[in-house]
Amino acid sequence: MYFQINIFNILIQKSNFMRYFFILLFVALNGYLSAQSNVEDAIIPLPNVLEIKPDFYLLSKNMTFRVAEIAWDKNIFLEKKKFIREKFASGEIELLKQGLKSLCNINLKYHSKNDRTAASLELMLDKYMDSAAYTMDISIHGIQISAATNLGFFYAFQSLMQLVETSTSNRIHCLHISDSPQFSWRGMHLDCSRHFFSVAEVKRYIDLMSLYKMNVFHWHLTDDQGWRIEIKKYPKLAQISAWRNGSMVGEYSDKKFDSIPYGGYYTQNQIREVVSYAAQRHITIVPEIEMPGHSLAVLAAYPEFGCNNSKLEVGKMWGVFDDVFCAGNDSVYIFLQNVLDEVIALFPGKYIHIGGDECPKTFWKVCEKCQNKIKENQLADEHQLQSYFVQRIEKYVNSKGKSIIGWDEILEGGLAPNAAVMSWRGTSGGIAAAQASHFVVMTPGNPCYFDHYQAKNFTTQPHAIGGYNPLSAVYAFNPIPAELSNENAQYILGAQGNVWTEYVLTFSQVEYMAMPRMIALAENLWTYDSKQNFDDFVSRLKINTSLLDKRKVNYSKQIE
Ligand SMILES: [Zn+2]
Fold it and tell me: How far apart are CA 169 and CA 510, in angstroms?
């Protein structure tokens, strides 16, 4: 730019004609360069080390790759490259190939052994790096990526795809990136009970998460208004609990309902398909099976598991119901253990979410079985009965080699010994749990509930449950509260955005509520705080949304 300005100053004195000519040329050139200079900065989440260099690497329609292992000769501190033919990171490379082909019209092929020229893409397996870390060096000669694991290569490929996709020409800037995430739990939740979303839609949600390196999908599979997972031992869950005879329409206070039958569920084969799809994209699924509250849909099929054995219907109204699992009936625990056996077999991740929230004690207070259970176990009250319930389930889940996570109500009456806590009623539950050395995921209603409005002027927005969680608040949220010591802060695994769907009727609306707030949360959790800047994020987002346009994502353009 310095060079252009000097030329401009010299020439501008020559003549009026020349002056106007060069002013126009300068404006055009300046516009062109500034448009170009933004392009390479559009990676989201922002890499933790990013050095942009002045040169460019020219992309071609045909690119090649090869994989080498880095061996260090420690005696002479020499880095040796050994090319390997093993199918390393083959799934990740396949996804990169598909993405380059379908979105950028670039063919990526294995570099022929006989080809004396350099490969466009050199993948270096460096086992000394951290598992989620990667480095990327782009020079005029090619692209070099180093990582220790398939995960590291996957994240590198996501960054590379963003660079190539957002480039408006056939070149990308030379640069150096050294990157790894700040938090290990970068989550998104989707409520498939209040409204049901197809396998294809759930996969699309996973695709959007993977674009921004999110890595935990919290799949809300059961609630009062519908049970969404096939359990072979209890077929009535699919036949009865998955269907309701109508839904609430409009505002909650209007108490209006339609009478359109609504429902659906995922077969176990479909669940396996989604789990494997997510795993290919390095996303772990945490299934949520709600207990002891939010269980009306189960009781509609199996009334004997409630305190009153009364005839019930799958919930049509949103909110919280008094009918919950009877905590004094041992057959309830056997039912849940059998359900969990099938759930655990389907989901390979460490955590099973057992809900634990919003469980009214109305019927427990008057139920003979519940009161006997309190006496038998010398429990102080119904809150301790809930704690007994959760601890009994935890013991079973632990015996299967898994851990439970639950909403912060599981703290009431005493926290189960190994449970992790999802803090949703503000951050105080998360603080208490971390201080007691329990792992925590922060997802406070404000600002992590993405079913709330994202614009102050609600009238410009589709009808939502209420609240106001703008993009800037999501970006500014710090998952580590100031109250925590450095030692306790280590128990904060990360944070999560929740998309509850009482008022979100279609998948297109899911996209609108999730995007771009998910993108802000992704950067918040990946990029170190010292590198985070909302204005800079917004300027990159405006370029980066071309990825969403290309995929026809229905995202909100409200930036507040
Ligand atoms: Zn009971």
Answer: 32
- What tokens were used for 33? 């360069």
- Tell me, in angstroms, the distance from the centre of ligand 1 to residue 161's CA: 55
Query: What is the DSSP code string of 111-164?
Result: PPTT--SPPSEEEEE-TTS-TT-EEEEE-SS-EEEEESSHHHHHHHHHHHHHHH
CB contact at 8 A, 343 and 289: yes
Cβ–Cβ < 8 Å for 218, 288: yes
Cα–Cα distance for residue pair 218/362, rounded to 1 Å: 29
186 Cα distance to chain centroid: 6
**Residue 229 pLDDT class (50, 70, 90 cuts):** very high
Closest listed residue to residue 89, CA positions, set 47, 152, 139: 152
Instruction: Tell me if 361 sits within 8 A of 305, measured CB to CB.
Output: no
Neighbours of ion ligand 1 (CB under 5 A): 307, 326, 328, 367, 369-370
How many CA atoms lie within 13 Å of 255's alpha carbon, on the beta-carbon side?
0
Task: State both tokens at 337.
Answer: 């253990």
- In angstroms, what is the C-alpha Rg of the chain? 27
Cα–Cα distance for residue pair 377/281, rounded to 1 Å: 46
Buried b (16+ CB within 10 A) or exposed e, 21-49: ebeeebeeeeeeeeeeeebbbbbbbbbbe
Phi-psi map region of 263: left, alpha, beta (phi>0 left; psi -120 to 50 alpha): left
Distances (CA, A) of 414 to 79, 182, 419, 421: 54, 31, 11, 12
For residue 364, give the nearest of 321, 306, 309 by alpha carbon: 306
If pLDDT is split at 50, 70 and 90, which confidence band does 3 have?
very low
CA of 418 to the centre of ligand 1 (A): 26
CA of 363 relative to ligand 1 center, distance in Å? 7
Compute the half-sphere exposure of residue 209: CA atoms within 13 Å on the CB side of its CA: 30
Token pair, residue 264, equals 């659906």
Neighbours of 557 (CB within 10 A): 9
Q: Is the pTM of this model over 0.85?
A: yes
Please give the positions annotated as active site: 223, 294, 358
Task: Give every CB contact of residue 168 below 8 A, 6+ residues apart in sequence.
Answer: 35, 36, 39
CA-to-CA distance for 119 and 230, rounded, in angstroms?
48
Cα–Cα distance between 199 and 191 in angstroms, integer? 13
| pLDDT tens digits along 89-103 | 999 999 999 999 999
How far is the centre of ligand 1, averaged over its atoms, from the C-alpha of 335 (Å)? 15
What tens digit of pLDDT does each residue of 26-77 get? 444 443 443 344 444 689 999 999 999 999 999 999 999 999 888 776 666 6
For 244-256, what is each residue's pLDDT tens digit? 999 999 999 999 9
Whether the predicted pLDDT of 519 surpasses 50:
yes
CB 108 within 8 A of CB 100: yes
Residue type, 351: Y
